[in-house]
Amino acid sequence: MILPIVPRGHWAVFLTCLCWSVTEVIRFSFYSLKLLNVSPSSFSNYIIGGLRYNLFIILYPLGVTGELLSCYQVWQYLGSLPDQQPKPFTVTMPNPLNISFHFEAFLLFCVPLVYALCFPPLYMYLWNQRAKHNLEIQRSYLEVPLKFKHYKPLRDLLRLNSPGDCDQ
Asked: Which residue in the list 60, 72, 77, 123 is annotated as catalytic?
């Protein structure tokens, strides 16, 4: 909706698209593996799950930053237009519906408010999902056959994550 207004090639648009693209490819790969009932302890699920629940830590704030910077660019553009010129996505009165909508004010007040109220709960939800995923991985390694438990990395993992620790 705002891409025609943001200056062509602005890095905020690139940042937003890059973060969205990487996040969505990993997310859809992760859910595809889940639909195929791939074991949580399999190598592919371990890698894709690790990417899914670790890259969001960086990519989500970067994506939101790119989105907000793009909105700021649009706000600057709308502010630079003369008052007599019609502004994009703005409805002024009088009109048949007798309503008005000022896109510039929407970008200035509503968009940051929505991000301030909605981003923290979403981000914390993903942190909780990350903790659940890590517990699932730890539990799957606890079910390793006995003949493999003498390997040092597994032995250390089993010692640090005894079955009583996973219930917390």
From this structure: 60
pTM of the predicted protein model: 0.74
Q: HEC string of the chain?
A: CCCCCCCCCCHHHHHHHHHHHHHHHHHHHHHHHHHCCCCCCCHHHHHHHHHHHHHHHHHHHHHHHHHHHHHHHHHHHHHHCCCCCCCCCCECCCCCCCCCECHHHHHHHHHHHHHHHHHHHHHHHHHHHHHHHHHHHHHHHHCCCHHHCCCHHHHHHHHHCCHHHHCC
Q: Is 60 a catalytic residue?
A: yes
Greater model confidence, 3 or 77: 77
